[in-house]
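[agent] plan:
  1. take the single chain provided in the ticket
  2. run structure prediction with default settings
  3. attach C-alpha cells to the ticket
  4. add a short note for the reviewer (M.T.)
[agent] executing step 1
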Amino acid sequence: MIKEKRKQRKKRKTKLVILLLLVCVVAIGAYVAVEGFTIKQVEVDGNALYTDKQIRDSVLNDEYSWNALYVTLKYRLFPVKEMPFVDEMEIELLSMHKIRINVYEKAIIGYLEANNQNVYFDKEGFVVEISKRLIEDVPRVEGLQCQKVVVYEKLNLDDNSALPLLLTFSQQLQKYSLSPDTIEFRNGHKLSADFQGVTIQLGDSEYLVEKVMRLDAIMPSLSGRFGTLHLENWTPLTKDVVFTPDKSMEKETGKKKEKKQEKKQQ
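[agent] step 2 finished; step 3 output follows
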C-alpha cells in the first residue's frame, strides 16, 4: 500500500511538473508572439499605380497592426480591403520584425472619357476607376460613347455591340505588349490605332487576332517612321502589307536629327 501511494505521489508530481512546463512554454510563446513580433520594416512589391504608403496604410489599418504575426494571420483569414486597381494582396512574414506585402494589380487595358472623367476598364470590360488622373501607357479609346458609368460594373456603351470587339482587340494588344496612344472606332466597327506617328488601319473584326499577330512582327520596322499601315484588307493569305509614309513628317524628323548631329560635332 505504501509503495502504491508513493507511486501515485510521483505520478502526480510528474504531471504537475509537465503541466507547469507547458504553462511556461505557452506563456513564453505568448510573450514572444506579442512582444517579439513588432513590425519594424515593411516591404511592398508589385505596385505601380499606388504608392508604398497607400498600400501600407490599407494593410496596417487597426490598433493591432504593429504585430507582424497578427497581420500575417489576419490576412490569411480575411482579405485586404478592396482597392480599385488591386486584384489581390498577400502578406508574407519575412522575419519577426519584417513583412512583405505582395500586390497584384488589375490589368487595365484602356480608358475612355465620359462626363469629363477618365473611365478605366479591365480585360473583362468592368470599370475599375472613374477619375481625373491620367495613367501612362494606357490607350485612350475614341469614337465610343458611354453616358452612365458605375465602378465595378460593366461598361454600358451606347453601342454595346462594339464592346466584344474593343475587348478582343485590347487583350490582343496587351498579349504582345503593344501599347498604342489611342484606339479609335470609325464608321461603326472600323478599328484603327495610333502608335507615336504611325496609324494602323485594321478594319472590322475579320481576322482581328491574326492582324494583331502580324502587327507585332511589323512594328520593329516602323520605329521612327511616320505614316499609315494598312491591315484592313489583310488576310492570312496576303503576302504584302501596304505602308503609306508621311513624307513631310519624315523629312522634318530627318532635319531635326541632322541638326542634333551637327550640334554634337561642334
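[agent] step 4 note for reviewer: The chain has a mean pLDDT of 81.
[agent] ticket updated
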